[in-house]
Amino acid sequence: MVAALTDLDDILKSLRVLNRGTYVYLPVEEVENLAEVLAVINEGEGSYAVAPATVGGHIERFACLTLDVHSALTSVGLTALVSTVLADAGIACNVIAGYYHDHLLVPEDKAEQAQALLAALPTKNR
Fold it and tell me: Distance between the two ends of the chain, CA-based, in angstroms?
């Protein structure tokens, strides 16, 4: 197992951005196979799954961009940097932190632009 990176410069040097396809938020009751979902969020208003758009879903569709680098859960700066770069470009972003990777849900029509901005991070911030 590869050790999680904690230094932001090391994280950025190793960063790759993968597009996992289109995802939607939908009530967990509408999902037949929970193994298909990226995440389930339990809130006071109900439980929602983040699932591939092929499962069903609502009007809003998001591209799921995965930051393919094993950053430590205690590392500092990656989420702030990613959020700032996307916000400066006017791109909404919802972040789901996984154990090994962070997953970014951005509007589907902004996926290519977001991916290009994030792919440029390693060279932009050295």
Answer: 27
Query: Please, is 80 exposed, middle or buried when counting C-beta atoms within 10 Å of its C-beta (0-12, 13-18, 19+)?
Result: exposed
Q: What is the pTM of this model?
A: 0.89
Q: What angle do CA 124, 89, 115 make, to 5 degrees?
A: 60
Q: 62-67 and 39-43 as β-strands: parallel, antiparallel, unpaired?
A: unpaired
Closest alpha carbon to 22 in 69, 55, 47 = 55
The rounded average pLDDT for each run of 10 residues, N- to C-terminus, in the chain (126 residues) is 86 92 93 92 95 82 95 92 96 94 96 95 62
CA 76 to chain centre: 17
Cα-based torsion angle of the residue sequence 81, 67, 75, 61 in order, rounded to the nearest 10 degrees:
70
